[in-house]
Amino acid sequence: MFDVDDALREYAQTNGPEPEADGRIQIGYIYTTIRFESLLHPGYTSVECWAATSGMSRLFARSANIRKVFTDLTADSGGVCCLFDTGDGAPEQVCWLNGEPTQEIVSGPRFPDRRALVATWSDSEK
Hints:
- The protein is α+β, with helices and mostly antiparallel strands and 126 residues long.
- The chain has helices at 6-15, 54-62, 64-76, 114-118, and strands at residues 2-3, 24-25, 30-35, 46-51, 81-84, 93-97, 100-105.
């Protein structure tokens, strides 16, 4: 369930269901894979989430409230990085990094590639 924003409101108009009385909306299944050794850094665990449909994936890209849920989950669990990837070849967006919200992209000036991003994480094995 997500708090309704403009993107979610538009999604509900074409893909149902209506927002609940508490102002939240259910959008469908989200699939999750947990890797106890991240592909990016073997000293970290990764949690990867995927939308069940292409329409939901496009919604994830448009909705700040959906990104906030995943960023908050990262922060609340002590995660070092929340990386948003649309899966369509667009640059990945870093939403959370080392305890701070951010809006950087991978392939940008600060992070030319994933290796540069991962280099900012502390060495978890120390």
